[in-house]
Amino acid sequence: MKNACVLVAILVLPAFAQETSWSDVGEMNIAKLRQLNEISKQMKGKHFTESLAAKIAQESMSYYASMMSCSVGKGSRFAIDLANVPVMDCWKALAKSWRNIKNIDFDMNRLAIDPTSGGKIIFARVPWEAIGVTDAGQEVPGTKMRGTDNYLYGFNDEGQIVRVDYDYDSGLIEDLRKKIISYETNGRAESWTDVGQQNVAKVTHLFRIATDGLLQKPMTQAMSEQMSDRISSFYAPTISCSQSKGTSIAVDLTDVPSWKCLNAKSELWANMKFIEMGLKKIAIDPQSDGQTILATVPYKMVGVTSNGEDVPDTYVHGMYNFRFDFDHEGKIVYSDSEFDSGIFEKTMANVERYTKKKGIQIQMAEQSTSQVLTMGVAFGLVVGLLSGAFITQWACKSRRGQVLSEPILG
Question: What single string gives the DSSP state of each residue in 69-124?
């Protein structure tokens, strides 16, 4: 009996010793993906047609299971989602998705193993450079682009690919197709100058709305709400914004609902009155394909008390610098501004000293909303909204000396 147990132990122990770890499985699957990447490099400099897709598919067929699932651009207008289909169906779908693209360069240079999958799921990041082409393969001027795509590869126990999920920036593809249609229709694609001039017009219009509202006195709440609605329409629902980073008036928000930027640091401007503001210079960044606009705005302002009185010796002037990034739909998705925080801090210190000397509290407890809007909140509405430290209207209610400030979102 003892010998039988020893024999069982001898037979079982090697089986455990030979069990492959998740890291070993993952590294083997990564090696296969690198081999696939080498096969795929024949796409470089070529129009990705169905015949080229079929050629690459045939050469790489041994890496795939006979039936697989694949998805491309989930949630976008160009989404493809196939489950348990022949490998060639996935390649044909990919060829359809890429039919207006010529790859200039790409490389699968970042690969990661999901340990919870036992090494059977590999994530890949692929930086690329490409240019748009017509269906006939003609390159379209002004459509060269760069980006990074994300892939998920799922392997079975035999080390064959059974799943591929491919995510990319669908906005790039949509913009590319618009340019190709324009090129085929009008003989030219929309250039960075065309895009930039459209965005310059939007920024100019944005400043015009803001300054017209600011300099119109008195400003009622209805007028303020209307101005806020008009200005908000220039922005995407989710945006990022920053202002004077590293200072006391800093704002730095990333991928937040626009209303969060609309309220950021709005209270800072309640004791400032804007006297003059004008869009002096505006420029297009050609490296952004016209989607980044830079602007400089000279201003004059004065500190004010809570009852609207100008504070002596607080008249200042300076320069505001702005950056606006637009998406492919022509909406602002990022704004940044630089403002001299030293000027702001000095002005506020002078206002505080003056109000203490005069016995005026720096608060808005005894005033109506329309009075508040006339006295410096308008400054914040304009400057804040344009810089990304956007301010909405503040309805201030007095309740036995207590100030309640409620944001009214546009």
Answer: EEEESTTSTT-EEEEEEEHHHHHHHHHHHTTTEEEEEE---EEEE-GGGTT-EEEE
> Would you place residue 222 in the very low, low, confident or very high pLDDT band (cuts 50, 70, 90)?
low
Residue 9 included in any domain: no
Nearest-Å Rg of the Cα atoms of the chain is 30
DSSP alpha helix (H) spans, 187-220: 192-215
**Residue 65 DSSP label:** E
- Segments forming the whole domain that contains residue 149: 14-186
Domain boundary (186, 211, 227) is at 186
Whether the full predicted model's pTM is greater than 0.70, yes or no, is: no
**Residues in contact with 135: Cβ distance below 8 Å, sequence separation at least 6, in sequence order:** 99, 100
Same domain, yes or no: 155 and 226:
no
Average pLDDT estimate for 295-311: 84
Query: What are phi and psi for residue 293, nearest 5 degrees?
Result: -120, 135
What confidence category does residue 151 fall into, taking pLDDT thresholds of 50, 70 and 90? very high
CB within 8 Å of 2: residues ≥ 6 apart: none
CA dihedral 82, 73, 168, 235 (to 10 degrees): -170
